[in-house]
Amino acid sequence: MQLLNRFRPILTAIGLQLIVLIGLFLVIQTLWQGFSITLSLWTKVGIQAGGALLLSYIFRLPMWWIIIQFTAPFAIMLAIIFNLPTWLYPLAFFALLLFYWNSADERVPLYLSNKITWKALGDILDTGSSTKSTKPIHFMDLGCGFSGTLVALAKRFPQHHFTGVETAPLPYLVSLIRCLLSGHDNIKIQRKSLWDVDLSKYNYVYAFLSPEPMSRLYKKITAEMPKDGRFISNSFVVPDFPSNDTRILDDRRQTELHIWEIS
Ligand SMILES: C[S@@+](CC[C@H](N)C(=O)[O-])C[C@H]1O[C@@H](n2cnc3c(N)ncnc32)[C@H](O)[C@@H]1O
């Protein structure tokens, strides 16, 4: 049951495509038998894509699923027309899996914090370390991606400690190499699930995930993080628990950094 729940978006997406396909089949039959009308190939593909988009919207799938639902019929038809070799499909699937390991299961895709966010995070650490205490900062990036955030902060604050965890194989490998090459000895990368991290060791925890894990994560944060710590979430709020502060950054997507003071 839990497994079924985890894969609900994929199953819903496939189910909606099938419903549209059945509807399309009935339309084709009716038009042919009643009016001797045949639809062109691309009209059929367009109806399939448009129908899947509409149903996905009605069923409130997330925006990135709606885009996939619309583009998939065109992509499949192009693959059939160009007769792509069959080994390309498992290869593409495997390559995507290495990057987007956590997308289906945890519903957290890979997208990265930008330089303006790195700078804003650094400013938050700066005010924190000057006004709160003189204790060294132990910063954790939960799901560190390619570790751009960690490298930028480790460079700016050589006196503090920066750790990231990542489970997706390729981002983990890139992070490891990037941190080694950066030459900073105050960064650590671990191949570990964020749910297995003991947060009591970190006075700053950063996460840029998705709406999905936020309630569960906040429970973990409040149960484990030390008093006086700060939890910073890029873009995603915690339902029913408003942050103490929100900074809106001057970048293209007006990134919001939500900050909770742990008390
Ligand atoms: C949106 S990206 C953010 C990357 C990075 N923190 C940044 O801000 O640039 C989220 C990352 O979290 C990772 N992730 C998702 N679930 C995870 C889990 N349970 N444990 C560790 N990493 C996870 C994903 O693989 C992805 O790299």
Task: Summarize it.
This protein is of the alpha/beta class. The protein is built from nine helices and seven strands, in the order ααααααβαβαββαβββ. The chain has helices at about 1-5, 10-35, 40-60, 65-80, 90-100, 115-130, 150-155, 170-180, 215-225, and strands at about 140, 160-165, 185-190, 205, 230-235, 245-250, 255-260.
Description:
With 263 residues, this protein is an alpha/beta fold. The chain has 2 domains: 2-84, no CATH class; 115-261, Vaccinia Virus protein VP39 (Rossmann fold). Helices cover 51% and strands 13% of the residues. The chain has 9 helices and 7 strands; from the N terminus they run ααααααβαβαββαβββ. It has helices spanning 2-6, 8-35, 41-58, 63-81, 88-99, 115-131, 148-156, 169-182, 214-224, and strands spanning 138-142, 161-165, 187-190, 204-207, 230-234, 245-248, 256-261. A 7-stranded mixed β-sheet has the order 3-2-1-4-5-7-6, covered by helices on one side. Strand 1, helix 7 (148-156) and strand 2 (161-165) form a beta-alpha-beta unit. Helix 2 (8-35) packs across helix 3, helix 3 (41-58) packs antiparallel against helix 4 and helix 6 packs across helix 7. The radius of gyration is 23 Å and the shape is elongated. The two termini are 36 Å apart. The mean pLDDT is 91. S-adenosylmethionine binds at residues 101-102, 106, 108, 110-113, 141, 143-145, 148-149, 165-168, 171, 193-195, 208-209.
